[in-house]
Amino acid sequence: MMVAGIGIPFGVFLIYLGAWWVAGVTAMIAALGAAEVYRLAEARWVRPFPWLGIPVTAFLVVSAAWAGGIAEWSVWGWLALLALALVSLGASLFLRGPEGGPLSAVAATVFGSVYVGATLSFAVHLRAFPGISNGEVGWDGALIPIFVLTVTWCGDAGAYFAGTQWGKRKLLPSVSPSKTVEGAIGGLAGAAGVAAIFAFLLLDSPPGLELSVGAAAALGLLIGAVAQVGDLVESLLKREAGVKDSGTLLPGHGGVLDRFDAVFFTLPIAYLLLPLFLP
After folding, report:
1. Mean pLDDT, range 21-30, rounded to an integer
2. Of 110, 119, 179, 202, which is the most exposed, with the fewest CB atoms less than 10 Å away?
3. Which of 136, 163, 192 is where one domain is finished?
């Protein structure tokens, strides 16, 4: 509760301040998340290059703020990931040799940056969504990432409540034994309902963001579904690594991956889907 009580108001204020503030703090979160991915890999005897992957992960987020648009950012992102792959191969060649598992090491290094850095960069892209905001201070641009995060985490809360109260049929026991079909349905209903309420209360005035209640509910349903996939994917990675939590950074919440697993999926998907639901 303490983490949520501090983190939620701080996050809302940060998003209000603009894209550069979002990029700076999100880059730090992404760096910590990438470090957790590399520790999960090391638990399975894979030896990535954190000293290469972590800076690239942070760069992917920060560059989203100064690139000037997603097209320009994509060029820099691809170049950064290409450089990461090539330099990792060089490090494998000169520092470890064939016995160092070069294929798995390079794959895990690049994966960590993509899974955490490329996905979280869309918090910045959403904050400066084309046609609505340039990322400046204000609520118009801030409402978009706040909407996505609210729907994501309320859907998660709905899944937990429904699963606790009525859950009987296991959803995917080999990956996450505690998740149930009833919980998944509750999560979808919660995400759609919160999205509709959010749109009714807050998304009726910013220019270019007149999202109807019905469209918001449909978008929320899709975000809720993708969020559950993201949650299960992180459980899959932890299951392979043989750990309960990805880290201990957040008291009562585990690590960065444990808290943001769904967001890795919902941020980029929401960016892609939102134009389909706007008038």
Report:
1. 96
2. 202
3. 136
Confidence at residue 252, expressed as pLDDT on a 0 to 100 scale: 60
Amino acid of residue 60: L
Among candidate residues 101, 136, 171, the one where a domain is terminated: 136
What letter would DSSP give residue 209? -
Question: Could you tell me the residue range of the domain that residue 141 belongs to?
Answer: 137-279
Q: Is the dihedral of CA 174, 154, 275, 20 positive or negative?
A: negative
233 by Cβ neighbours in 10 Å (0-12 / 13-18 / 19+) ranks as: middle
Answer yes or no: are the C-beta atoms of 2 and 48 closer than 8 Å.
Answer: no
Query: Structure pTM?
Result: 0.92
User: Quick count: other Cβ atoms within 10 Å of Cβ 144?
Assistant: 25
Burial of 37 (0-12, 13-18, 19+ CB in 10 A): buried
Average pLDDT over the chain reads: 90
C-alpha–C-alpha distance, residues 102 and 94, integer Å = 11
Residue indicated by tokens 């990675």: 237
Rounded Cα–Cα distance for residues 252 and 200 (Å): 33
Structural domains counted in the chain: 2
Same domain as 147, residue 69: no
Domain check: are 254 and 155 in the same one?
yes
Residues 128 and 145 in one domain: no
